[in-house]
Design goal:
Sensor domain-containing protein, 2 domains, 287 residues, 18% helix, single chain, 8-stranded mixed sheet, signal, 4-stranded mixed sheet, alpha/beta, elongated
C-alpha cells in the first residue's frame, strides 16, 4: 500500500537556548494543545479546492525519487536522511532511472532529480529528468533567514548580552502576559506581544532587566496558540495535498501544497482572512 503524502507540521515551541536554531524557535506544533479555545469544527475539507495544471510543471530544484518496490515516488515533503532515505509522495509515471545518480540499499532505489512533467492530481508523468550530477545547483534560489522585527535595533548594555542573558530573556518573554512569540536573528532577540504600543513598551522595559543586547519588540494580533489552532484546521482540510505547514513569521502561517494555481490561496484567504495563510506550490509552471 502506498503511504500518503507526508504532512510536516513545523513545531511552534520556543526553545529557550541561545544555541537554538531559528527553525526551532519559530515552528508551530499541532499537538501543542487547544490553545485557541475555539469550539468551531473548522473548514469543510470537501470545500477546499484541488487544482490541476493545464500544462507542464516542474520541481523548483532537486527532489528525491525513491522506489521501495511499489514503483518510483517523488518526495516533495520531508526526507529522513538515512540510507536508504525515508520519504513518500506522488507516484511517478514514465520515469527512467538512467545511468547517473541512482543508489540502492536494503531493496530500495533512490536518487535526486530535477523533474518536468504533467500532474493530474494523483500521478506525476515525467517528460524530463535531470540527475543531481548534471544539475546546476547555482541556479537554485537561496533561502533567507527570519529578519528582526524592527530596523535599527540598539544594544543598551553589551555586557549583558551573554548566552545566559539570552536564555533568561527568552524565558522572561514567554512569561509575559501579552506574549505571542519570539525568535532570534543572529544576536537580535525579537519578541511579539498582543496589544498596543503601550503593551510593547511595557514588554520591552521588562525584557531590558535581563537583556542589554539587540532587542526588537513588536505587536501582533495572533499568538502562537492562535496560529496553532488554524494550523490544525488547515491540515485537516488539506490533508491529501499539504506538504508542510507552520509559522515562520509573526501573525501568519506558511503552507506548501503539491500544486496551487492560486485557488487554494483564495480559499485560505476567504476561510481565515487575507494574508493569514500564505500558500506556496511545490510544482511550478514549466515555462
Amino acid at each position: 500500500m502506498r503511504t500518503p503524502l507526508l504532512t510536516l507540521a513545523l513545531t511552534a515551541t520556543l526553545a529557550l537556548s541561545a544555541c537554538s536554531t531559528e527553525q526551532d524557535m519559530r515552528a508551530v506544533d499541532p499537538a501543542a494543545g487547544e490553545a485557541s479555545g475555539s469550539e468551531t469544527l473548522g473548514p469543510d475539507p470537501s470545500q477546499a479546492p484541488a487544482p490541476v495544471p493545464d500544462g507542464a510543471v516542474r520541481t523548483p530544484g532537486l527532489v528525491t525519487v525513491i522506489d521501495g518496490g511499489q514503483g518510483p515516488e517523488m518526495c516533495l515533503g520531508a526526507v529522513a536522511e538515512s540510507a536508504p532515505p525515508q520519504c513518500s509522495g506522488p507516484a511517478l509515471a514514465d520515469f527512467d532511472w538512467g545511468q547517473v545518480g541512482a543508489q540502492e540499499a536494503a531493496g530500495v532505489r533512490w536518487g535526486s532529480y530535477a523533474l518536468t512533467g504533467t500532474w493530474d492530481g494523483t500521478t506525476f508523468t515525467v517528460t524530463d529528468a535531470i540527475p543531481a550530477a548534471l544539475y546546476d545547483a547555482a541556479a537554485a534560489p537561496e533561502v533567507g533567514g527570519l529578519k528582526p522585527a524592527c530596523e535599527g535595533a540598539v544594544a543598551t548594555d553589551p555586557s549583558r548580552a551573554t548566552p545566559e542573558d539570552m536564555d533568561a530573556t527568552l524565558a522572561a518573554a514567554s512569561a509575559l502576559p501579552t506574549y505571542a512569540t519570539a525568535w532570534l536573528s543572529g544576536q537580535t532577540i525579537s519578541v511579539a506581544v498582543t496589544g498596543d504600543a503601550e503593551a510593547a513598551e511595557a514588554a520591552e522595559a521588562e525584557l531590558r532587566t535581563t537583556w542589554g543586547g539587540l532587542l526588537c519588540v513588536t505587536t501582533v494580533q495572533r499568538t502562537d496558540a492562535d496560529l496553532n489552532a488554524v494550523n490544525q484546521e488547515l491540515q485537516a482540510a488539506l490533508s491529501d495535498r499539504l506538504l508542510t505547514s507552520g509559522s515562520t513569521a509573526p501573525d501568519s502561517l506558511d503552507a506548501e501544497v503539491v500544486y496551487d494555481d492560486g485557488s487554494i490561496q483564495d480559499w485560505a484567504d476567504t476561510t481565515w482572512g487575507d494574508g493569514l495563510v500564505r500558500v506556496t506550490s511545490a510544482l511550478l509552471p514549466a515555462s
